[in-house]
Amino acid sequence: MPKSLFRLLAILCISPLLVSYFVLGVVANRDGLLESHSQLLSMLPGKLGSYLRVAFYRFTIAHCDPTATISFGVLLSKCSAQLHRHCYIGPRCMLGDVIISEDVLLGPAVQVPSGPHTHGIDDLDTPIRMQPGRRQTITINRDTWVGAGSIILADVAEQNVIAAGSIVTKPTEPRTINAGIPAKKIKDR
């Protein structure tokens, strides 16, 4: 009962930000609004900050389960993001177009951008910032632990461990431990 009450109070506290998000969303890009609101919310410390962030994201991204934990400094940039049951997003993580499945743990400073090709680079006569990229949804499947400072550019299979500081550039196999740059399977779980 107390958690349900805290969740309701968090929604009430965050309601002015929700109103601003939806009113401005009539004329502005929702992903841009999400990013700016995310920056503001990221500065709220502790468990209270997590409750307030979850309350906001429950209404502004594709899915945010009320049991998610979203730590200090976390930035979300895409409304298509999904955060499922009992996932933990560690401090200072940066998330784009992602699906974080149930029971996933992301250590501090994990980055999951919207795939490896968010910027076009083929046309040397056009600045990179003006070239279209290809956005990709990255899925981190259930019961996976991603270590601190990792960068995830491809899907991570279920029940994986990704060692701290690894860069995942290719999809992983289920129930494996992966490490390195680029990340490679080092053993089965």
What do these coordinates show?
This protein is an alpha/beta fold and 189 residues long. The protein contains three helices and 16 strands. The protein has a seven-stranded mixed beta sheet. The protein is flat, with a radius of gyration of 17 Å. 33% of the residues are buried.
The coarse silhouette is flat
By DSSP, the count of extended strands is 16
In N-to-C order, the SSE pattern is HHHEEEEEEEEEEEEEEEE
Largest β sheet strand count, sense and barrel closure: 7 strands, mixed
Read across the widest sheet, the strand sequence of neighbours is 2-5-8-11-13-15-16
User: Total number of helical segments?
Assistant: 3
Low-confidence stretches: none
User: What structural class do the secondary elements suggest?
Assistant: alpha/beta
Helix content: 25-40%
Measure the end-to-end span.
Answer: 37 Å
* Overall residue-averaged pLDDT value: 95
- Rg, Å, rounded: 17 Å
Portion of residues in beta strands equals 15-25%
Reconstruct the topology from this structure.
Elements: H1 2-24, H2 30-42, H3 46-60, E1 63-64, E2 69-70, E3 75-76, E4 82-83, E5 88-89, E6 94-95, E7 98-100, E8 105-106, E9 111-112, E10 138-140, E11 145-146, E12 151-152, E13 161-162, E14 167-168, E15 176-179, E16 184-188
Helix pairs in contact: 1-3, 2-3
